[in-house]
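Hello again, I could really use a second opinion on something today. My current little project is about how a certain protein chain folds up. You're getting the sequence in one-letter code plus the fold written as tokens. Here's the protein in full, and shout if anything looks odd to you:
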Amino acid sequence: MPQTGLPESPLVAIVRRLREPTLPVLTVAHRGDSQNAPENTLAAFALAVEHGAELVEFDVHETADGDVVVLHDETVDRTTDGRGEVHRLPTAAVRELSAGAWFGARWKDERVPLLDEALDLCRAGRVAPMVEIKVKWRRRLPIGRKVGEALRRHGLSDKAVVIVRGFDRVPEVKAAAPETPVVTLTFTKRQARTAMRSEGVSGVDCYWKSLSSGLVAELRQGGFFMTPWTVNRARDIERLILIGSESVVTDAPVLSRDRIERFELERTLEHMERVARGEPPPLDLEQDDDAPGPTPDELAADPDAPS
């Protein structure tokens, strides 16, 4: 990895335990390569590995039987051919559903993966899993402990990241896997700074529009890492590179790695050095008000905001 005046991101160290990164910015495949395969399926994860992503992000819920499965929504309605809330359905019923037919006929045999299956694939593909716990805290399900135990079983507890939506989940994960980095989902700069003061938190899974060169410097100098989501335009990927982000969370890992690889390395390093010296980036690199998506404050006000 190129050296800058900023400390090396702890996220790089996590990836290095599986393989040496080949580009200066890491690509995180959001729900796998979800632009080319149905999200949160083994097919999407396999494509992400094939296309060079260093990390694969996916979401987990618990079934009525207490098994941990990979699915984004609280219901199976949007991404399968079934209906119902995940936590009310037995595992066998969830596993019978097609998790790919909605995306295209060629994917009709894809199933909702078990967490163990997803971790097996990540381990074999030498990509770091980023596991986002979607179960709401009010249900009191011990899914954080189960995720930590699964990471240890697969030898990935120091080679993975767990994302939580509330600080209450942090000690639950840490009790099962003290060595596993836990990050919190944030929408605004204020939330990111609050996370930096919270015990057991290693970084922020942050809405990309909330990230600035100043916040990047604060996080890195404080020993935290960041995973800005979800960025699918080339110009927005380039902006994140220029303000010093060590990673890009994207539905399009091919585009991400292409833009990182083709971007003028000298210009990238020059601006990363400026960030390290505390100098502001050029005005044209500041947030693009025309960029698609809600503002950080709009997301923060929505308890069911997507990620």
Remarks:
- The domain at 10-76+114-300 is CATH 3.20.20.190 (TIM Barrel).
- The mean pLDDT is 91.
- The chain has one domain: 10-76+114-300.
